[in-house]
């Protein structure tokens, strides 16, 4: 299953800057980026290894493909790659319905990892009231798992804090982060598995903490759902695999969205969970106690 992420945001919110930052800091991941036009993101020439038709191969293993053959055709071509991409990211146009694009993440061989929407910190509260574009912006933000309040440097600190509070109140399903020049830590944007180098790097970062939990037994799905529901905002991302008699369950928490998805293949024995959060907020002892109190095992 290839993680599938949609990145959206209204015109001028900073998607191009974020995408370039992602490509430069892939940390060994083979990222496939689907975009409308190469020219829109102005890929760093030093990164380009080769270009053939509607595809650019980058020196760090990432690839960029345009949507000239259509959305479905572009995804199908990526699924035939050897090796396959580690992660597929779609850049939505400034007026696109990101929720509709996210549905492709439920296709065979793909797993929806999340919807990330950028907002222009300086203008979003004004534009969301605009009679022409306001509904488009609100619809995009309402579909987000993570909202990046970009260009935070253009606001005084107190105004930036107030904006984040407003975004969190208006769109409670999402986790809100401030950013300047699209500079957001990779683990907050892409899926993290227990053995990912990116996660190990994040866990050692001064600003991030990691919690992991493994048991060599099958967990009761109902108790797993209760555990996920009990997690608070200190858990920014959680992902895991739970072995079942008929396969396994893929577990994911992104912001306030919780997902448990059946998968016919057993990917790991027992229960394996990994979470990340801000170092000063994520409390491993609290999560250990919560897991001990709620999780129930069948054998």
Secondary-structure-derived class: alpha/beta
The rough form would be described as globular
Q: How much helicity do the residues have?
A: 25-40%
Largest sheet: 9 strands, mixed
Q: What is the fold-level CATH name, i.e. the topology of the largest domain?
A: Rossmann fold
What is the structure about, briefly put?
It is built from ten helices and 14 strands. The protein is α/β, with parallel strands linked by helices and 299 residues long. Strand 8, helix 7 (157-170) and strand 9 (175-178) form a beta-alpha-beta unit.
Descriptive account of the structure:
The chain is of the alpha/beta class. It folds into 2 domains: 2-188, P-loop containing nucleotide triphosphate hydrolases (Rossmann fold), CATH 3.40.50; 197-294, 2-Layer Sandwich (Hypothetical Protein Yjia, Chain: A,domain 2). 28% of the residues lie in helices and 30% in strands. It contains 10 helices and 14 strands. The protein has helices at 15-24, 38-41, 71-79, 98-102, 124-127, 134-142, 157-170, 197-203, 221-230, 284-294, and strands spanning 2-9, 31-35, 48-52, 55-58, 63-66, 87-91, 110-120, 146-150, 175-178, 208-215, 237-244, 247-254, 257-263, 271-278. The strands form 2 sheets. A 9-stranded mixed β-sheet has the order 3-4-5-2-6-1-7-8-9, with helices on both faces. The radius of gyration is 19 Å and the shape is globular. The model is unreliable at 192-206 (pLDDT under 50).
